[in-house]
Amino acid sequence: MRVAEHDAEIDVAVVGGGMVGVASAIALRERGLSVVLLDPGEARARTSYGNAGVVSRGSIFPMSSPALWAKLPTYLRNADRGLRLRHSHVARVIPWTAHFLAAARASAWERAATALLPLTSAALAEHMRLAAQAGTGHLITRPGWIKLYRTDDAFAGAALERTILQRHGVALEILDSDAVRAAEPALTRTYARGMLLPETGAVSDPGALVESYERLFLGLGGRILHRAVTRLEPGDDGWRVHHADGTVRARQIVLAAGAASGEIARGLGYRFAFAAERGYHCHFALHPDSPPLTRPVLDTGAGSILAPMGEGRVRVLSGVELNARDAPPDYLQIEAASREAAGTLRLGAPLDNRPWMGARPSTPDGLPVIGFGPRHRGLIFAFGHGHIGLSTGAITGRLVADLATGTAPAIPLAPFAPQRILRWPRWRRPEAGGSPA
Ligand SMILES: Cc1cc2nc3c(=O)[nH]c(=O)nc-3n(C[C@H](O)[C@H](O)[C@H](O)COP(=O)(O)OP(=O)(O)OC[C@H]3O[C@@H](n4cnc5c(N)ncnc54)[C@H](O)[C@@H]3O)c2cc1C
Questions:
Q1: N or C end of the chain: which has fewer CB within 10 A?
Q2: Which residue's CA lies nearest to atom 2 of ligand 1?
């Protein structure tokens, strides 16, 4: 079908229909703007489809932590279960790597946590609001989640994390070995300690949640074009958004294409220190005799998350693979995570023909990019949510709508300014950046 150029200019074109793009589109419609959302429309191509569904106030820690230095030799040898490096690719993302290493300091880690806390604190309530409107409130529960430590040493190694959480007033409970077992009788492995974060929601089907938000957006009078954007063209009279079958004219653009955002921004002259942190999942049935797994758990020793996804079904999720977004999948990590999971839960049959793979849109300092493109009028960046985009995507939508309508953002956006990770151009301070159309 040929999609003709729309004569009427619309207010905002949103590029990318994962959690960040869909939530932005909804929030913009709620402010009365006309909105077209462009996305290829492949559910499994969204990272928002395949994640662990954790929505936690305590998810405030970037990957680049002060603990990195002690682990670096293990990481470089690909001997850590949580991280796999494709060395040839790491050489291709040197700006990201350099910035990532520079951020691995206690002071930067704590600063990042402070910046993320308002986002993670607002995440669950915003999802509850949207899901209630979308009729999918049942997909979100509030069971908390547990970080599990196999040894006392591993628990001791996470002391700074606990200190920062407590300093920020994030609720947590320390569990000893018996308390871990009592909290999750489905666990067959013995853990030395656990940390329960009660202020945490769990989504039992993240893909279905995004789709329900799409329907909500349509119900609010929004339009969706299932097309990949090929080029963004700025002009004196607004933007032309080119796709394979035509063009959309819009006064403002929201770039929310997840891990593809860096490449699209490059077409406009922006070079971000940006990378794809790939991840995998696969599903297993719990053995019929096993007690249910009642909440997501992170096995820090395996570097993987086990998340209940519907009755009797567990999603096993891998850690990070640093590799090109579109390189062929490498199932080594998820296979190892699945073997570990079989020692942690009584798993029955695998339920997938092959694992799912997605790419976390990754900034080196672990903070998303939410702000105006400094070289253009009416360009809003909303990407780079890394490990927490399913949860913080919803509230990001509200912030995008604040920017588009010239409203003071409800959450301070200076820490998320694009300029901090822009290699080029570097010629403006964050607060001097672009503006609405
Ligand atoms: C294994 C794993 C576990 C995770 N667990 C959690 C978790 O528990 N909690 C949490 O909060 N986060 C989690 N995340 C992270 C989270 O999934 C991501 O941060 C989030 O999905 C990013 O959302 P997004 O909308 O930016 O990107 P996406 O969901 O990837 O959406 C981007 C969209 O843009 C589209 N697109 C790409 N190119 C174009 C183009 N040219 N034109 C138009 N559209 C385009 C894509 O097709 C896609 O639909 C996890 C991620 C992984 C991999």
A1: N
A2: 51
38 lines ligand 1 (CB under 6 A): yes
Residue pair 307/317 in contact by the 8 Å Cβ criterion: yes
- Best residue among 20, 36, 47 to mutate for probing ligand 1, ranked by most atoms within 8 Å of CB: 47
Q: In angstroms, what is the span from residue 53 Cα to ligand 1's centroid?
A: 12
The pairing of strands 313-317 and 379-383 is unpaired
Q: What is the pLDDT along the chain (437 residues), one digit of tens a residue?
A: 344 455 468 999 999 999 999 999 999 999 999 999 999 999 999 999 999 999 999 999 999 999 999 999 999 999 999 999 999 998 889 999 999 999 999 999 999 999 999 999 999 999 999 999 999 999 999 999 999 999 999 999 999 999 999 999 999 999 999 999 999 999 999 999 999 999 999 999 999 999 999 999 999 999 999 999 999 999 988 999 999 999 999 999 999 999 999 999 999 999 999 999 999 999 999 999 999 999 999 999 999 999 999 999 999 999 999 999 999 999 999 999 999 999 999 999 899 999 999 999 999 999 999 999 999 999 999 999 999 999 999 999 999 999 999 999 989 999 999 999 998 765 444 433 456 66
Q: What is the pTM of this model?
A: 0.96
Please identify, by atom number, the ligand 1 atom nearest to the C-alpha of residue 48.
Answer: 21
Judge if the upstream peptide bond of residue 425 is cis by omega within 30 degrees of 0: yes
Cα four-point dihedral sign 419, 424, 426, 432: negative
Atom of ligand 1 lying closest to residue 229 CA: 42
DSSP H/E element including 127: helix 106-134
Question: What does residue 417 show for φ and ψ, rounded to 5 degrees?
Answer: -60, 135
Closest residue to atom 22 of ligand 1, CA basis: 389
Closest CA to 427 of 388, 390, 373, 385: 373
CA distance 131 to 416: 26
